[in-house]
Design a protein that fits this description.
By secondary structure, this protein is mostly beta strands. 2% of the residues lie in helices and 39% in strands. The chain is rod-shaped and about 90 Å long.
Length: 171
C-alpha cells in the first residue's frame, strides 16, 4: 500500500497573500497539522498460463484438416484487464517416435523433417473466433507467431485458446 502526506506549513515564507504581498504566519493555516491521504493498494497485473485438458493425445491421419494441436488458458488476475497482442508458439518434432523431440526440426535416421513440413498452416482460436491470421511455422526453427492480436482477457477471467492446424498429406 502507498499513501501521501502533505506536511503542515511551518515557515512564514511558505504562502504569500497575492493581494497585499504579505506572507501568512503559521497560525493562519487551517489545519495546522499534516494532512494524510488514504492508503492506496497498488496491484500488479499478471497473466497466468496453463495447459488445457483438451485436446487429448491421439493419432491423426495425414492430410487432416482442422486438427486441434494445442489447448492453453490465459488467466488475468484481479488487478486489471490485460491485452494480448502477440503469441509465439514453439513447435517440436519427433520423426522416429523415440521420445526425443527437436525444436522445430528432427534429423533422425538421416532424414530431416521440420514442423512446417508436417503442419502446413495453423490458426489460433478463442472459442469459435479466429485470432489473427492463418500462419505457418518457420522452417528454420518451428516457431509460429500470431501478431496484431487484439485479445482482451478481462480481470479475474480466463481465455481458453486452441491451436488448430492443417496437416500435410504427403509426409
Amino acid at each position: 500500500q502507498i499513501t501521501a502526506t502533505m506536511n503542515a506549513f511551518t515557515a512564514s515564507a511558505d504562502v504569500r497573500n497575492l493581494d497585499n504581498s504579505q506572507y501568512l504566519v503559521a497560525g493562519d493555516f487551517v489545519p495546522s497539522t499534516a494532512i494524510a491521504g488514504n492508503p492506496m493498494t497498488v496491484r500488479v497485473p499478471k497473466l497466468t498460463l496453463s495447459g488445457s485438458s483438451t485436446p487429448v493425445s491421439r493419432n491423426h491421419i495425414v492430410g487432416g484438416q482442422g486438427v486441434e494441436l494445442l489447448g492453453f488458458n490465459m488467466k488475468a488476475n484481479d488487478a486489471s484487464d490485460l491485452k494480448v497482442t502477440q503469441i509465439v508458439l514453439q513447435g517440436y518434432y519427433d520423426e522416429d517416435n523415440n521420445g526425443t523431440y527437436g525444436a522445430g526440426i528432427d534429423a533422425a535416421g538421416g532424414n530431416t523433417t521440420n514442423v512446417s513440413d508436417a503442419v502446413l498452416t495453423m490458426k489460433l482460436m478463442n472459442g469459435a473466433t479466429q485470432l489473427g491470421d492463418v500462419e505457418s511455422a518457420s522452417a528454420a526453427n518451428g516457431k509460429v507467431t500470431f501478431d496484431n492480436l487484439n485479445l482482451v482477457v478481462p480481470k479475474s477471467q480466463t481465455a481458453s485458446l486452441k491451436l488448430v492446424g492443417n496437416l500435410n498429406s504427403s509426409i
